[in-house]
Amino acid sequence: MFKQFTSLQWKSFFRSSNLGKSLGIKILMGFFGVYMLVSLAGLGAGMYFILRKIFPDQSPMWSISQYFIYWVLIELFLRYFMQKLPVMDIKPFLTTPVKKSTIAHYILGRSAASIYNLLTLFFIIPFAIVLLFNSYPGLNVLLWVVAVMAIVLCINYLNLLINKNEKALIGIASILIIGYGLDYFGIFSIKELLAPVFHALYAYPITVLIPIVLAFGIYYINYKFLKDKIYLDAKLKSKKVEANTSDLAWTKRFGEMGSFLQLDLKMIWRNKRTKSQVFISLLFVFYGLIFYTVDVYSSMVPMKAFVGIFMTGIFLSNFGQFIPAWDSSYYSMMMSQNIPMRKYLESKVILISVSVVFMFLLTIPYVYFGWEALAINFGCALYNLGVNIPVILYFGSFNKKRIELDQSPFGNMQGTSATQFLIMLPVLVVPIILFSIFYYVFNIQVAVIVLSVLGVIGFAMKNYLLNLITEQYKRKKYGMIAGFKEKAS
Amino acid sequence: MITIENLSKKYGSQIVLNIGELSIPTGQSFGLVGNNGAGKTTLFSLLLDLIQPTTGHIINNDVQVNTSEEWKPFTSSFIDETFLIGYLTPEEYFYFIGDLRGQNKADVDALLSEYQDFFHGEILGQKKYLRDLSKGNQKKAGIVASFIGNPKVVILDEPFANLDPTTQIRLKQIIKELAEKKDVTVLVSSHDLIHVTEVCERIVVLNKGEVVKDIQTSTETLKELEVFFAG
Q: Which residue ranges run through the membrane (chain A) (predicted)?
């Protein structure tokens, strides 16, 4: 039975219309995947030496045990977003003579082979090998690896139990933040408290049984839970959220655009993919910290322009690049309705502009790293407002791929085509090149002023540019309608 | 008055629609029947400028559909579920459509109250998004949405499919009432010969993209159609 299920799963993957199309993207994604795995393995191998260097007076094994609890929490946190619950199309099997327990075991078993579990292997095995070369006892290291894998499985099944429960997520996030805060301010050290516990997994090989038993325990709870829920109306049915109506009356102030703005806000808030995108965008405010705190970058000023464009424009590029594909599932209705195309586009402009301004306000604390950080971010925000918004809308007219709104954004390539990669060029690369040229020829002030002035010029020409873009959207209309109708492409 | 002239649509070498001439006078209730692939949805999509004609054109009340957008204010339609916005509640959807057609909330509410019977208490006030409604209920919402804003031309593709018997009977009543208004043209397509003959004054049969029958409905029409489709 398992064999048949597996072969079905295999077919559903290779025969999905997703896979047949756009070979280029697949190759590119494959390349990124391999790159990720290689760098992960490299990090694993290097971790021993890194820990040696940061904490010279303690064993790397001890250091890693200290931070183990954070890794567990962070992984739980990330998985909540990234890992899809393992559902296969069970409906056809309900009426066939397949035991429900078999189905449940299969679903759970398959999630053990999830790519996220393998990622840890890629990190932990090189680390273990380095340990062995540094004459750590073989048995201890080996069983430690087994213990870590068992913990990974615990996390895996725990995540299934949490099952997209937002309260649990908030719980995990607050434990993480509070724990780290307490550690950081030296009030109470969770890592010191738990370090011996995790270190014991290495020091006393017999303790490997604990995570293994734990993993089986959580698996069993999952199994119990799942087996009783294999009915059409229980687990298998996608959750129906109770609609909360809000009339967002304030959008009326934008006149005719108000109704579109309202529609966009509802779309963003009520659909998984768009909603997560907002959260991701917010998180990217911290992206700049990497560039401002690490010494290597402090002399590379153009990098700061890059983060400036990136941070203030993250929502612009994430959301903007898929306009109008967000509306793809009902695009033919929009096109046969009494809709002025220009107002439709203008409402998108307002939405993105607000996001740029908002993201800029969030980046103001970077002034801590000097006034020039603020100046660069300001110039970049202006450039995004004036130049990048029309650019991204223009490129949007090349979108022909449908997007299903309810799916998670992570690893979701829906709606992605060569257009998305082409967009990055003018949006990100052009301003950085401009900035670099003026920075190296003149100085940072001139470079910031150039970006700002370009932004202001773009803003001044907004009406003219929008007219051009509107024409472009009208020309591309039939192609879009036809493209958006093709499901799952 | 809708006039179709030399209209054809080709995909590659395959001709999916080819209509030399057809005119639908204002106020007529017009039925379109045909087997799968006969070109019904293609014709409706052309009427709504969702696809481009290979040759010819359609003139909807003096507006050439594929060159001007002036037909939009007085034409409304429900083709399929892709006309619905899944993440809105039915009420929000109606108000949105109302907004697009220059109707305020009160206007829309007044219109909706006329269709309480048709909704059968399953559409309004359900605290559900459109995507979570059953197919039949989605259809009800879509059909009623196409009545918002006093359209002069109403286009409904397969409105009877997926509806329960009670709703089918009510929908027939609604379409008849709509057709009685002198200035509203109703275009309906269907696979159900009985329903179309009941609600439409005129029935056109499409077969492989060509008009093969054009009948003013009478008591013999159903028989005639059955004979035709029996082959």
A: 27-51, 63-82, 115-136, 142-162, 169-190, 202-221, 276-294, 306-326, 347-368, 374-396, 417-440, 446-466
> What 8-state DSSP symbol labels residue A286?
G
CB contact under 8 A, A336 and B127: no
Distance, in Å, from the CA atom of B47 to the CA atom of B60, rounded to the nearest integer, reads 8
The domain defined by B2-230 carries CATH number 1.20.1250.20: no
A330 touches chain B (CB under 8 A): yes
Q: Which of A50-59, A84-93, B145-154 has the least mean pLDDT?
A: A84-93
Question: In terms of C-beta density within 10 A (0-12 exposed, 13-18 middle, 19 or more buried), how is residue A224 classed?
Answer: exposed
Q: Are A295 and A429 in contact (CB under 8 A)?
A: no
To test the contact with chain B by mutation, choose from A259, A260, A263, A337 the residue with the greatest count of B C-beta atoms within 10 A, namely A337
Q: What tens digit of pLDDT does each residue of A31-50 get?
A: 877 888 888 888 888 888 88
Rounded CA-CA distance A400/A317 in Å is 17
- A205 Cβ partners below 8 Å, 6+ apart? A139, A140, A143, A144
Q: Where are the domains of chain B?
A: 2-230
On chain A, the residues whose CB falls within 8 A of the CB of B88 are 263, 266
Tokens of A265: 């806000």
Q: What is the DSSP letter of B5?
A: E
Q: How far apart are CA A260 and CA A104, in angstroms?
A: 44
